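Tokens for chain A. Residues wanted.
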């Protein structure tokens, strides 16, 4: 009888130990927070690299592809240089979006940018890890670790609900991919590569940012 009781106690203790272990190492307990993500993305002095954008429209069989280079200085600004299919340079800062005309920066014309201004401004918050700014317009769902994370943005303001179903961002110490899923069924996928952090800015980027 004592042997039976001992076996029962041992099984109960084993379950308790396993339960404690699962609790201790639970992803919910040790979750990678949006505050930590923001700190990670804002840590480099600057982030430079290449981008490829694929825009999937319901009315087209093939995506519209653009590519170029970007320079991000967290909490300062974003220089967005589209090189293909045509050359276009945009600067995004807290004072607005400007376009380079070959000689100087001028106020960007929203009608000529076909809605690109709104996306570029959003990219500044996404790439720069401005989670506080994003939380004003989206509900954030972060999963993963600092080495590999995914952030889903579900719109919460009436304006964002009219534009997006959701936005997915993924990366590690920098943003690697952004996917915008729009309300009308269109989709935009951004891939970032050849990324370097802390590299000295060239003369044009220094002047712009």
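Reply:
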């Amino acid at each position: 009888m004592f042997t039976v009781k001992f076996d029962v106690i041992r099984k109960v203790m084993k379950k308790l130990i396993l339960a404690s272990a699962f609790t201790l190492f639970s992803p919910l307990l040790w979750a990678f927070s949006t505050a930590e993500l923001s700190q990670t993305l804002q840590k480099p002095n600057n982030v430079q690299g290449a981008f490829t954008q694929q825009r999937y429209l319901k009315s087209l069989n093939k995506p519209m592809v653009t590519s170029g280079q970007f320079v991000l200085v967290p909490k300062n600004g974003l220089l967005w240089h589209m090189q293909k299919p045509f050359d276009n340079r945009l600067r995004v800062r807290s004072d607005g979006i400007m376009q380079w005309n070959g000689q100087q920066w001028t106020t960007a014309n929203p009608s000529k940018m076909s809605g690109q201004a709104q996306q570029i401004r959003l990219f500044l918050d996404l790439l720069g890890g401005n989670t506080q700014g994003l939380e004003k317009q989206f509900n954030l769902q972060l999963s993963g670790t600092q080495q590999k994370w995914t952030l889903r943005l579900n719109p919460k303001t009436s304006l964002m609900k009219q534009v997006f179903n959701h936005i997915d961002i993924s990366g590690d110490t920098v943003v690697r991919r952004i996917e915008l899923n729009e309300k009308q069924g269109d989709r935009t996928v951004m891939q970032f590569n050849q990324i370097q952090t802390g590299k000295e800015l060239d003369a044009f980027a220094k002047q712009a940012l």
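Confidence is low (pLDDT under 50) at residues 2-6, 8-30. Residues 2-24 form the longest helix (23 residues).
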